[in-house]
Write a structure and sequence with these properties.
It is built from no helices and 8 strands. A two-stranded antiparallel ribbon has the order 1-2. The chain has one domain. The N and C termini lie far apart (58 Å). The protein has strands at residues 15-17, 25-27, 32-35, 43-46, 53-56, 59-62, 66-69, 74-77. The protein is elongated.
Length: 83
């Protein structure tokens, strides 16, 4: 079995072209649909299909009552009830 690299012109949703190796696509931050780099501050568009994702200025973040889980790559609710 051989691994063959495929050169692409566009990386598509949730990926960006690596600056050092421009024919390599890498994952955007989990809160982004399109991005220029791996950080949530490098999102061009936020992935609002995911629960808890919000836009703050030029960043995609986990909104109020949510916290980023980099293990599950989601915004998890941190809401606690007083009942």
């Amino acid at each position: 079995m051989t691994n063959k690299a495929t050169c692409v012109e566009d990386c598509g949703l949730r990926f960006y072209k690596d600056a050092i190796s421009p024919w390599t696509c890498k994952h955007c931050d989990f809160r982004c649909t399109t991005c220029t780099g791996p950080l949530n501050t490098e999102c061009l568009n936020c992935d609002f299909t995911k629960e808890g994702v919000a836009k703050t200025g030029s960043s995609c973040v986990c909104g109020p009552n949510y916290v980023a889980s980099f293990l599950t790559k989601t915004c998890e609710s941190n809401f606690t009830s007083n009942f």
